[in-house]
Amino acid sequence: SDDGRYAATAGFDRQVVVVDLEQQQEAARLTGHTRGVLAAVVRPRQLESPDSRPPGPPLLVTAGADHTLRVWNVAEKKLVRTLENHSAAVADLSLRPQPDGKSNLPMVASVGADGTARFWQPTIGRLARFARLASPPTACCWSPEGSRLEACCRNAMAVAERFIEALNHCDADA
């Protein structure tokens, strides 16, 4: 988590376990994926809204071999929504950095064995854009300022820079 108190573990048993590191105990056990869970990211709990809306609750986004992303409310230990758009296993997730601490909506990138990088607004369940890559990606990460997504592919590194302009349009629309 953003404060370092919680960690999430996931695996092929289709479960996500959230651990309270201060209390050294399990805080939540989340089930819902129908195949193994391959990645997880936490949306920071304190995001300042530009229009004075209160920040949303912390959310956990997981990705799996079942071709889906799942958005969880950890505090309530429940599934908020399932994002279905990949046509193969989702290999990795990355939360877009927000250096200024402000954003209309958080953005999560997912990469999958279907050869795509997809850009999501998980708090509203929206697929904002996607990019088809030359080789199936296995991992991804945002540049520190959040202006570029880099995806490691099976045969080379591909950069989905051309979709950053589209993402900027997503930010303006939100």
Provide the β-strand percentage band. Answer: over 45%
Question: Kindly, what is the distance between the CA atoms of the first and last residues, rounded to a whole number of angstroms?
Answer: 25 Å
What letter string, H or E per element, gives the SSE order? EEEEEEEEEEEEEEH
Mean model confidence by pLDDT: 81
**In what order do the strands lie side by side in the largest sheet?**
4-5-6-7
Helix fraction by DSSP (H/I, runs of at least 4): under 10%
List segments where confidence is low: pLDDT < 50 over at least 5 consecutive residues. Answer: 46-54
Q: What is the helix tally?
A: 1
Shape: globular
Q: Main sheet, how many strands, which sense, barrel?
A: 4 strands, antiparallel
Count of extended strands: 14
Radius of gyration computed on alpha carbons: 16 Å
Summing up helix and strand content along with how strands pair, one would put the structural category as mainly beta
Task: Characterise this structure.
The strands form 4 sheets. The protein has a 4-stranded antiparallel sheet, with no helix packed on it. By secondary structure, the chain is mainly beta. It is globular and about 45 Å long. Strand 5 (59-64) and strand 6 (68-73) form a beta hairpin. It contains 1 helix and 14 strands; from the N terminus they run ββββββββββββββα. The chain has one helix at 164-173; strands at 6-10, 15-20, 25-31, 37-43, 59-64, 68-73, 78-84, 90-95, 108-112, 116-121, 126-132, 137-142, 149-153, 157-159. The longest helix is centred in the C-terminal third of the chain and has 10 residues, at 164-173.
